[in-house]
Write a structure and sequence with these properties.
Length: 225
Amino acid sequence: MAEDESAIADLISLYLGREGVSVQIATDGQTALTAANNENFDLIVLDVGLPVMDGTEVCRRLRADENWTPIVFCTARDDEIDRILGLELGADDYVTKPFSPRELTARVKSIIRRTKRQGEQSKILRIGQVRIDTETRRCWVHDRAISLTAIEFDVLAYLFASPGRVVTREELLENVWGYSEALGTRTVDVHVAQLRAKLGPHAPIRTVRGVGYSAEVADPQEINP
Ligand code: CA
């Protein structure tokens, strides 16, 4: 966790520790970046406002370096959320300050649970030109590997698991993010938008206005390419 306010850092460590999550604290951005590059964390909680190098720059450098460790941002500003979740930074989730330790703990545990889900047999799912492997958590368009964040992969895998079925935003929130409380559906929309951007013009995700999304080929001719 990268957080320069020691009271917050200590409190979060306490909460996560109770849940069996061990926490390493960095109090500035450069230290956080170095630690993230040298160790294999399950997840990074990143404050935006950090000394030396701010949290968004830490994230940008990690992603530029193909480090896809899940990142949960802490931000005091609502207007930063799109940028945090968007293509530029590719974070997995966020909490806005002031946040409750319980809320952050729930999100951290949810992401760790999802990304550590292992022992499932390798399962290749394919729709149109897009192929995913649910065990190795990799994704390809044609044969080009696409780098997805943990949450992007989970959204895609959830949609791919039932092709053609319309999935509501609420269902995605509950099953992918792991909480049903009203988080606001903007989170879902931002992640789907960036998934589409990464998958390109043949992204097999259809928007069903006012309802949600479904995984299907954009062009029927792509079913048997
Ligand atoms: Ca701060």
